[in-house]
Design brief:
Layout: H1 8-20, H2 24-37, H3 42-54, H4 58-71, H5 76-88, H6 92-105, H7 113-125, H8 129-142, H9 147-159, H10 163-175, H11 179-191, H12 195-204, H13 206-209, H14 213-225, H15 230-243, H16 248-260, H17 264-271, E1 298-302, H18 307-313, H19 315-320, E2 326-330, H20 336-341, E3 345-347, E4 360-363, H21 367-370, H22 385-391, E5 401-406, H23 416-419, H24 423-427, E6 436-440, H25 448-454, E7 456-458, H26 466-475, E8 478-482, H27 485-492, E9 497-501, E10 521-525, H28 533-551
Parallel strand pairs: 1-2, 1-4, 2-3, 5-6, 5-8, 6-7, 8-9, 9-10
Helix pairs in contact: 1-2, 2-3, 3-4, 3-5, 4-5, 5-6, 5-7, 6-7, 7-8, 8-9, 9-10, 10-11, 11-12, 12-14, 14-15, 15-16, 16-17, 18-27
Length: 552
């Protein structure tokens, strides 16, 4: 049994020493022994609560810090600690309530930088950016050397896409030795497309973070975006995966890196790691592919991910048909008719498939691995959708040059908004062009004002499914689209297609000028992230020189 405390002051010094040396369990034991003889010692309750915070035992932290605050209500640091305990326990509203009460009742605390800092963190947890920024700003004004406040304020500005303000704050904190600010500075540079600047910062702090998997992964992504040396980029991805082999995101980006560099065999092998994502494997599908041969088997090919992926990878169905005994395709409802028209057994629901007659079920996106795809040539033929295009071919076209456009996507994908180009900006490329008939193939339609202002025909009501859309595409002489399923459908049909890309574009579009996946595609890529000026300028020049040639 432990000795009873006789000298509280000495015992408290020992407890603080244990806390400073991160010997938290021993510290708590001393605190409990002190309280057994001096239950009303608020300082000890506070110390015990702080230790509980370090141990992430939040309910005890709140209990102990509440006791300290009750015993010494004018010791404001105890209430500030209590509020922080509530925040870390997942109750930022209670944290805000306590801190605002202190501010209202004790005017002297208006100049308490830690209170404003903690209040800002709580507002941030509540996703209240305006109030969060307000209190981080106050904290920095009160203490210009509070690098933590500076760093967190920069993070808040990034969330609001106020990148200029964020970069200034990161640079300030970084210059004063706050290396984590350097990490976020580099990440922000990459986010806004300044890949070279991001790489410079990563490399300046590399030695400090070379054992941090996330740092290495983000560095590798920056190198990848910048089309840096293959081996250097590969080394960074390998290092990140070696440190944290359970992070699926690492493998996905690493696979995309290989695809972009036409290392298909390695890329598709690595890409199988995506199946470790929660809910990635289909529910109710039996006999999932385990790497065995598909020859002479009855195969269920099931879709995965978006419409664009299905259209792009459907070419591999052609390679399976001759070697399999039978092939059934499970696909998204809007694509059913287009594949049925191609003579493929296609269904939208699993309960329509007789699984007793299936030997192997394989993801459409795993077919390249099963088929040993290893070169650009293995991507040919482009797809059987070209046959469909010929079915709808109009032998005689009128004299007007028809262009189908898609400028907007309402996809929930987090990068989707970066893909969209304002309609009025796209229309600048058509200025002074004569004899051009513009059709909007935006699935969500186009407003009446824009139809009239830009002389655009809205075709959205004719696009019930992808088969309908393919008929419209075949009417066109040219398709101009952002990175969306329409671009993949048009390109798969062999239609001359221009794809407009943001600077941090998807791996599927190759080098940002051309792609090995499609023969008749021209890509036009932003030179500055978020700005379509260079793209529109290039598009205008291209249209002027190309439309005449195509019409001829």
């Amino acid at each position: 049994m432990s000795e009873q405390i006789t000298d509280v002051s000495t015992a408290l010094q020992l407890a603080n020493h244990l806390y400073q040396n991160q010997r938290y369990h021993e510290c708590v034991e001393i605190c409990i022994r002190i309280l057994s003889v001096d239950y009303s010692n608020a300082e000890v309750w506070n110390l015990a609560g702080i230790v509980m915070l370090e141990l992430r035992i939040f309910d005890r932290a709140v209990e102990y810090l509440q006791e300290a605050s009750n015993l010494a209500p004018l010791q404001f640091s105890y209430t500030i600690n209590l509020a922080e305990a509530y925040r870390r326990w997942g109750n930022p509203q209670k944290c805000v309530e306590l801190l605002l009460h202190l501010l209202r009742t004790h005017s002297a605390l208006q100049s308490h930088s830690t209170l404003h800092f903690n209040l800002a963190k709580a507002y941030s947890d509540m996703e209240d950016s305006d109030h969060s920024i307000k209190h981080y700003t106050i904290a920095i004004k009160l203490d210009p050397n509070d690098l933590g406040a500076m760093f967190n304020l920069a993070n808040a500005q990034v969330n609001l896409k106020h990148f200029g303000e964020a970069i200034e704050l990161y640079l300030s904190a970084f210059s004063k030795g706050f290396l984590d600010a350097g990490v976020n500075l580099a990440n922000t540079y990459v986010q806004i497309g300044l890949f070279g600047k991001g790489i410079e910062v990563y490399e300046s702090i590399y030695e400090h973070y070379k054992h941090d998997a996330d740092f290495l992964f983000n560095y590798a992504n920056a190198l990848n975006y910048a089309h840096a040396d293959f081996e250097k980029t590969k080394k960074s991805y390998d290092a990140a995966i070696a440190i944290n082999p359970n992070k699926v995101d690492y493998y996905i980006n690493y696979a995309h890196f290989h695809f972009k560099n036409h290392r298909f065999a390695e890329g598709f092998r690595i890409y199988e790691e995506r199946k470790k994502y929660p809910d990635m494997l289909p529910k109710g599908v039996a006999n999932l592919w385990q790497g065995e041969s598909l020859e002479h088997k009855r195969i269920l090919v099931y879709y995965e991910q978006g419409f664009g992926d299905t259209l792009m990878f459907s070419r591999f169905l052609l390679k399976v048909l001759p070697i399999a005994q039978d092939v059934v395709f499970l696909v998204q409802e809007p694509l059913v008719e287009i594949f049925r028209r191609l003579g493929i057994k296609t269904y939208a629901r699993l309960d329509e498939v007789n699984q007793s007659q299936i030997d192997i079920a394989i993801s459409l996106l795993s077919l390249p691995l099963a088929l040993n795809v290893s070169s650009v040539q293995d991507l040919k033929p482009t797809t059987s959708l070209e046959l469909l295009a010929r079915e709808f071919y109009l032998a005689k076209k009128d004299s007007r040059f028809k262009v189908g456009i898609c400028f907007n996507t309402d996809s929930a994908f987090k990068e989707a908004m970066n893909k969209n180009i304002p309609l009025d900006k796209m229309m600048e490329a058509f200025a002074d062009l004569e004899g051009v008939e513009i059709h909007s193939l935006n699935k969500s339609g186009i407003d009446k004002h824009s139809q009239k202002a830009f002389h655009i025909t809205d075709r959205s009501n004719d696009m019930a499914n992808f088969l309908d859309t393919s008929k419209i595409i075949e009417e066109m002489d040219l398709i101009i689209s952002i990175d969306t399923a329409l671009a993949h459908l048009s390109a798969s049909m062999g239609k001359h297609t221009i794809v407009l890309l943001n600077k941090r574009y998807d791996w599927r579009w190759g080098n940002g000028v051309s792609t090995p996946w499609y023969d008749d595609v021209v890509c036009m890529t932003q030179s500055k992230m978020g700005s379509w000026e260079s793209v529109v300028k290039n598009l205008k020049t291209y249209l002027k020189s190309t439309i005449h040639a195509l019409k001829a």
